[in-house]
Write a structure and sequence with these properties.
mainly alpha, 4 helices, 0% strand
């Protein structure tokens, strides 16, 4: 069997497998969505993650500020965003 015949045979087998496998049902899609939502903390519902990069020194300073103020980085960064919004005459909604 030549290499091209072998490849064609593999392609046909994969197509046959795809044709015989059952299509996902709405209930399995709903179950998948529910399992993803069930691992999200309630405090994060309706919120979006914002990721950015900072220098290692700034990250260390943020951690120390968290310890000094007994607050989470989440609450400190929300305060910083609200200050930024106010500076630019926007509603403090973070």
């Amino acid at each position: 069997m030549s290499p091209s015949q072998h490849v064609n045979k593999l392609k046909q087998a994969m197509q046959d497998m795809a044709a015989t496998s059952p299509a996902p049902t709405a209930s399995s899609a709903d179950a998948s969505e529910q399992s993803r939502n069930s691992i999200v903390q309630r405090s994060r519902l309706g919120k979006r993650a914002v990721t950015f990069h900072i220098d290692e020194a700034a990250q260390k300073q943020l951690r120390l500020l968290c310890v000094d103020t007994d607050r989470t980085s989440q609450s400190l960064l929300e305060e910083a965003l609200n200050d930024l919004f106010r500076k630019h005459i926007r509603s403090a909604i973070a």
